[in-house]
Design goal:
Layout: H1 17-20, E1 24-28, E2 31-35, E3 38-41, H2 48-59, E4 63-68, E5 73-78, E6 89-90, H3 91-99, E7 103-108, E8 114-120, E9 123-124, E10 130-132, H4 134-147, E11 157-159, H5 173-176, E12 189-190, H6 197-204, H7 210-217, H8 231-250, H9 270-282, E13 287-288, E14 291-299, E15 303-309, H10 316-327, E16 332-334, E17 339-341, E18 343-345, H11 359-372, E19 380-381, E20 401-409, H12 413-416, E21 425-435, E22 440-451
Length: about 450
Amino acid sequence: MAMNNQPASTDGSTTSLAEMLTITVFEINGHSLVTGLLWEKLDKPRSFMSEARTKGKEYGMDIVAIRDTTTVTQAGFAPKNRGAYKGMYSFAHVMADILGDNCLAVFALPDERYALFAILDGGIVPGSDQVGDRETIENKQNELRNLVGGTSHRWKRLIAPEGFSLSDETLSLEDIITPRVLKRAQQLKQLTFGLSRSELTKVVGAVAIVVMVAGIAMYLVHRHRAAVLLEQQLRAQQDAINTAKAMAVAAAGMQHAAQLAHPWATMATVDDTLDACLPKLRQFPLSLGGWVLDNAKCQSAGTFGAIYKRMGTQTVEDFKAAVMARYHAPAVILDGGDAGGVGGSYPAAAGSDEKLPSDQDAKDQFNTQFQALGIAAPLTLVPVTPPPPGQKDPPPVPDWKTYTYTIKTELTPTAVFAGVPHDGLRITEVAEAFDATAAKLTWTFTGDQYAR
């Protein structure tokens, strides 16, 4: 995904995806071409426009380019207030139709800037659709070339102007972008949010499975993203959360169970956790200094971050320089120089001391939600340790039950938690893991369900 040089800061402020895009329009042979779109794979070939509308609404985008082939369906999103308008041509879509399935290309523009494009195994590579000066584009070109190192993927064509370090052939946009190659399908379209009449009829007729339909419609592959935190700090923060829970449950000195502190009352709600964490996780770039995103985490207690792994010949200094340039903060290098990251925090939201559901209702509601989504999410009861026999003034025993859960899925967080009642439910950590080879994003959620 193309980003500007100033993502959300580590002080808790956030930047929308639309604001992070660098949209550029240039003209070749009298035709306006747009770069900088947010490219994503669409997973529902029979209703890809509905899926594109859902994602566009989530991201705050108004314009889309749809590329539908026999092997992949992709959407490139853009906000129209940044210069991209209906009827203009998507540069990446045009190049994908012209250059084939495995091509890394750079083209000189008339104003001494350069346009970059990459397609791998038939799919436009997110973050490769951009315009910049020579240094920026040549660095990005090298990152993309190194990204496939050590994998089964291969670039069949390497195109760049003469003088670039990576150039098997040189092509001119003026020579290849002609009226003969331009097609209506390559033009940007206006996104229409909401459902058509036929789609609405189907939804109304399927009220019993509306939650599952909403979950499928909100599939998300990868996200793009901001400040990062070290793996060790995340583990330490989780230990602190667990310690705080144990102290609250023990509450030594209380006279009876009603006086025990309720741990859920000091923990952010499900909605507050997702509202705080998702914008931060979406802002992490897939590649930083040529190093590739491995995993990212956000905790409800107010910490978030990501770990990057070294790829190809990219060095520690490459990563440190990229981190300093992007975040104005030093990087920390891990695993003997093969992993690294930087850290950030945000103000944690206050909790809610709501009335808890009954034990059976909590389990039934929780299980029903995730059975409908096809997700394995067992609840594990946390046992209460009784006081030693004969102890004088033993601490009171909690009058509630605590269950823990761990959920692993490719569904988006908002889809996962859309249907389950939130009373007594808490998320302690939202984590994502990126598989660069498969271009797949997997989410893991850990948390607690409290019941009476």
